[in-house]
Write a structure and sequence with these properties.
Number of strands: 5
Low-confidence stretches: none
Order of helices and strands: HHHHHHEEEHHEEHHHHH
Oligomer: single chain
Helix content: 40-55%
Number of helices: 13
Distance between the termini: 15 Å
Bound molecules: glycine
Strand order of the largest sheet: 3-4-5
């Protein structure tokens, strides 16, 4: 995709890519097939996340490695990514800790490997994950349920980013069932979670018997009725991807509505993302991951936009990326992680409160590679 960016912006993207290569080369040597999440004292520790091998972010490091392998061609990235993929078999076989985020985990590992190298073991792993995701479908309410236990009627906006695994599985197998489930989930999400002004809820609690909406909790945002910025980002990018896979115009319209809401709010905040767009002004809390995901989603919209609207999207994505790079990036190659000031949830006080989080770096790298026409669409 040619985003037609100015010479100045292109110069910045090229320089940033050079810095990413230096940083990723050093990180790959240190981390290899360990599974990183949040650095402690500047360094990642292996599997140092709440749910161990089942943690939802465990695919992002192999995702970064496959993007690097695709763009830079160095075999060491491939070897490290394959090592993580093999380790994730413990989760695939263990099953009990698995959840709706199998898309994040295996799109970035096995599905990426299969699509880049043709590895048949990777194909089997990714199809297995797609079947697990499809198995979470509730036909009465037409949604993919989130999490486990008694949350039988929970649907969350984040899951818009897992359903590309189902679009891929339908294409790969020639069996439309996976795509039907993905479309049903997207339609329900659009009807219940996205609001008329383009903002989104994080969670909706539905009746698992009828699909009736019972409650709209605040989830990882400030409160019920607020606007968790990463949730907006998952919806923005997720609907853009659903359009890319199905060509159903309502999905692109929804992605644009969310993007316009996000762009308007970020423009009010010097293009730096608060954790929630509808939270008190103080204390100031940032979530750089929301910005990185939004930038990728806005670039995806730009790829489908008409001639006159495309520059609006490309310029907005660049403003977000450049502002966050200037304010939050750490280019010291002796320390792990690039993008600081990520935040897991508005009220969280754990180590994911105001910290570099692995998926912030994944989406930053994807965005820069998109601008340079070197990305691989993992989704
Ligand atoms: N999908 C989980 C999160 O965004 O925190």
């Amino acid at each position: 995709m040619n985003y037609s960016i100015s010479e100045k912006d292109s110069g910045w993207a090229v320089k940033t890519w050079e810095k990413i290569q230096v940083k990723m080369d050093a990180e790959c040597t240190r981390i290899g097939s360990n599974i990183p999440y949040i650095p402690v004292d500047g360094h990642y520790r292996d599997l140092d996340a709440p749910e161990g091998i089942y943690w939802w972010t465990n695919g992002f490091w192999p995702g970064m490695l496959w993007q690097m392998y695709h763009a830079a061609g160095d075999e060491k990235y491939r070897r490290a990514a394959e090592g993580v993929e093999a380790r994730l078999d413990e989760a695939l076989e263990g099953y009990e800790g698995l959840h709706h985020d199998v898309g994040f985990m295996w799109l970035h590992s096995a599905a990426a490997n299969y699509r880049l190298t043709g590895n048949r073991d990777s194909l089997r792993r990714a199809l297995h994950a797609a079947n697990l995701l499809a198995g979470r479908y509730n036909p009465a309410g037409k949604f993919i349920r989130a999490w486990n236990g008694d949350r039988t009627g929970w649907i969350i906006v984040d899951c818009m980013m897992n359903i590309p695994l189902l679009y891929w599985a339908s294409r790969e197998t020639g069996d439309p069932r996976f795509e039907y489930i993905a479309r049903d989930h997207a339609d329900t999400c659009r009807r219940i979670i996205v609001r008329a002004d383009g903002s989104c809820n994080h969670i909706a609690v539905l009746s698992p018997e009828s699909g009736e909406c019972l409650e709209l909790p605040g989830g990882q945002g400030f409160a019920s009725g607020s606007s968790w910025s990463r949730g907006q980002a998952w919806g923005l990018y997720g609907f853009a991807l659903s359009f890319a896979h199905t060509k159903k115009i309502e999905y692109l319209d929804t992605a644009k509505a969310i993007a316009h809401y996000v762009i308007a709010n970020l423009a009010q905040n010097d293009w730096l993302p608060p954790v929630d767009f509808r939270s008190p002004e103080k204390p100031v809390k940032y979530d750089s991951t929301a910005a990185m995901i939004s930038a990728c989603g806005i670039l995806e919209i730009a790829a489908h936009a008409g001639e006159y609207e495309k520059p609006l999207y490309v310029q907005s994505a660049l403003k977000i990326l450049r502002a966050c790079d200037a304010a939050f990036s750490n280019w010291n190659k002796d320390e792990d992680a690039i993008m600081g000031h990520g935040t897991g949830s508005y009220h969280g006080t754990g180590k994911d409160a105001d910290a570099p989080i692995i998926y912030g770096d994944y989406f930053f790298i994807e965005a820069i590679l998109r601008l340079l026409g070197k990305d691989f669409l993992i989704w």
